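Q: Second attempt. The first request was missing the SMILES, so the protein and LCLJCK34 are both included now.
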Amino acid sequence: MNSEELRKALRLYLVMGSPNCGGADPYAVLEAAIAGGITMFQLREKGAGALQGSALLELGARLRSLCAQHQIPFIVNDDERLALELEADGIHIGQEDAPAAAVRQRLKHMIVGVSAHDLGEAQSALAEGADYLGVGPQYATRTKLDAREVQGPAMIARMREGGIGLPLVGIGGIDATNALPVIRAGADGVAVVSAIAGARSPQEAASELIRILQ
Ligand SMILES: Cc1ncc(COP(=O)(O)OP(=O)(O)O)c(N)n1
Ligand SMILES: Cc1ncsc1CCOP(=O)(O)O
Ligand SMILES: [Mg+2]
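A: Got both inputs this time. The predicted holo structure:
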């Protein structure tokens, strides 16, 4: 996938694991979100009740195959081994995970996404071979308990002004009411967890977001 294709794929990026689905079946939630128009998916199995071992592998394989059927890029959060086992299209790593340069070196064929919280981290991620950046939290979030301080869309504008041209997605507390300022600040898309996975209708939530982003 070239960088223009990646920019398009990042438009509405669902990040989700089973703990984010409010007791609903994650496969059904992803199916509905795809029907609603999400353009990329990240398996992020974290938090209370997160699956591990063979149960995680089994769920990951089902979600991976659903994404493949719909040509939705499938990304794995944090875990290189899981990404390889599931033949993922990519991996997303943060500042507390394995160093981006080493992951880039090991997973040459994969999309490598890196979390960046300021211009310095964005410049380092670029130098280390990141394919895209996740920038946040844009707004207050209850999903990631160890999230950094809220930055607002201004940090994205600062990165763009600082010469960061990489595909970039905002994350953290984003929903249909506040997605547009993230795009206007220079993001190619928005990454959301609860606005879709925790919605009464994930399909309607995704289609409403896509309508706003277009
Ligand atoms: C698209 C995207 N952006 C940022 C993150 C956060 O990654 P990280 O800082 O490593 O935190 P965890 O998600 O691992 O808790 C992300 N997952 N996706
Ligand atoms: C994974 C992650 N990284 C920064 S904020 C966040 C959680 C976003 O979840 P939500 O969209 O529910 O606020
Ligand atoms: Mg991480």
